[in-house]
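PROTOCOL LOG
Step 1. Enter all chains and additional molecules of the complex.
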Amino acid sequence: MSIAGWLQIILVLALVVVVAVPLGGYIVRVLAGEHNFLSPVLAPVERGFYRAAGVDERKEHGWLSYTMAMLIFSLFHLLVLYAMQRLQNYLPLDPQGFDPVAPDLAFNTSMSFVTNTNWQNYAGETTLTHFVQMLGLAVHNFLSPAVGLAMAVALARAFIRSEARTIGNFWVDVTRSTLYVMLPLAIVVALALVVLGVPQTLLGSVEATTLEGAKQVISLGPIASQEAIKELGTNGGGFLNVNSAHPFENPNAWSNMLEIWALLVIPVATIFALGRMVGDARQGRSLLWTMAVVLLAGIVTLYAAESYGNPLLTALGVDPSLGNFEGKEVRFGQAMTALFATATTGTSTGAVNAMHDSLTPIGGLVPMFNMLLGCITPGGVGSGLYGIIVVALLSVFVAGLMVGRTPEYLGKKIEAREMKFVMFALLIYAVNVLGFSAASAVAPFVVGDSGYLGNKGPHGLSEIIYAFASTNGNNGSAFAGLNGNNLWFNTTLAFAMFIGRFGYVVPVLALAGSLAAKKKVAPSVGTFPTTGPLFVGLLLGVIVILYLLQYFPALALGPVVEHFLMLNGKSF
Amino acid sequence: MLQHFRPAIVLIILMTLLTGVIYPFAVTGFANVVFPHRAGGSMVLRDGNVIGSSLIGQNFTSDKYFRGRPSATNTPDPNDATKTVDAPYNAANSSGSNLGPTSQALIDRVKADVENWRKAGVSDAIPADAVTTSGSGLDPHISPAYALLQVGRVAKARNLPEDKVRTLVTGAIEGRTLGVIGEPRVNVLELNLALDALPAS
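Step 2. Run joint prediction.
Step 3. Record the structure below.
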């Protein structure tokens, strides 16, 4: 670890907070339909969209109608993306003449993008045409976070309304999120990335003759425009196979800082937005502190573990001063790799600037743990906010049990009905991750010698757990030694993504409906305060106990045992 | 439920036009007018021919050139499409090794590479980037330590005084901006171009 490394980490995090505060206020105004500085340009577009779509922006939905709209929108979009991939050889913008994508891979990829996961079983530059990348994937990169933001704001509205039957208009929320939040930021970041060297061209590739006279075909494409929204929308699906480790997606230290900033800024802004919506900034700040503690602990652990190096290689005569360097890029170094890996899994982004499969066991445990939490530190666009609220509700419930009072959160009484939705959402994660992981771990065609694992021993199990933690948490990063492009993993991972997204948000929206219908109660002396260090400590305690109980046995058999075996000089 | 069909279909079409067509084409148009070199992938020309991209590493094997890091990229086997063969620095198929820290395959590979350095007369600890593959397989940079390690070999192969080559390398080292941002590194392609541009001694 170095001082320069820490300064870079602190600089990026500080820049996130500095922009997130005003951005949070902006998000609140936009989603309330208030006039803002982009209205003169975008309001006519917005009205045109509503007119064409037959949307009455003043008419709001109850939770069930809101949920149906979200599901229908997602289903239609899934079908469109599937059809595009299967027919890509008949569609334009195919400079490399690719074949149609196989059915199971197309299904997996469609689900991957609809759920904001962006798990990559495809290799961008050798599988998908520019048409699919631009009109298929990039569009989802805008809309799936917009849907996430819509749902988070709908849940936040449930807290500020009293005895309300509606939680907002889904179409209006999605349209405003896309037009006013995602699109303007994407344009700015995309142009900044081009300035920093990220290509943006319609060419498929350029053929070069190297200094030694060899032929080198260099894949190209409209990378910058996709890279920008990939990070801002906490999507993470790379234009190129190795994602942000590729010098074209991430050419230097500056682009790396910009990308980390971009993937954190909207989730953090959304937490500040909650504080504004409920009229008490401390409520947002307390949630953010909780997230920050988990995030910072992850950065310290990952940075320290990777800087120590791999003792098995040090024993062979490799200088450990650069740290564990397999799968990492010289231009990023350990500090900015550690920050990227922690931030991309604390959010639901899943972009990578190093190969996570080659991290040390403890280094790899950090992203895995972040994703097992459901990517809530600080979470994906929207999903971070509703994810942390679910955990906060559980925390006030636990505190309520201890002192024998009816728990309240943000002026709403939390009763049996709400707790059922909360528990359903939390338990479905554990069943999803552990169920699929267990099934894969005993399937001979997965773990056998000619199976789908890239590494043997405990690291092989880590690859499986990582895959389902990632897809369930809608993250999308991978221990990419795992061969996911086969019928088993294309299918199971797609279902894990589906359950991880929709199995979670449907109870969350039901919760929103239930809370909105309740009367707002004024805080009394008996109300457990949900701000300040005591609440942050309680929230952290619940997170640690809840998730360690669920996942410790699995993690002990994967990264933990691998760590001790590595220290004892074992290899597989 | 049916009342949601029209907005779903219409908004998917309109959003696809806006974010899938207008957005990327507008960015492409602007980028190619204002920053054509960068938008085109920072290609390096020599005598009018494309010799590579300054952002993408190349597979240098000759003793006359500085070498990059080992690369894990591959290409489909021409004899059997279901298999792949090693193809270092294949910029049409980026890939890392994805070998875990306790992988025997990783240890065997690094051991063989370290032994090659020992045979070449290096007795110190080997810089990690000289024997590990990068995340992309296309890393254009190496660490200053790895570059300096190669000075003797390159100087000998080119019949140049070592001091001259070393000066070239130290001049090619890019440090941290303002002492903070970035990592100390050397761009291998640019260094080798500078080497080729040296007047013959």
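Step 4. Note key features.
Chain A is about 65% helix and 0% strand.
Strands of chain A lie at 205-209, 215-219, 408-409, 412-413.
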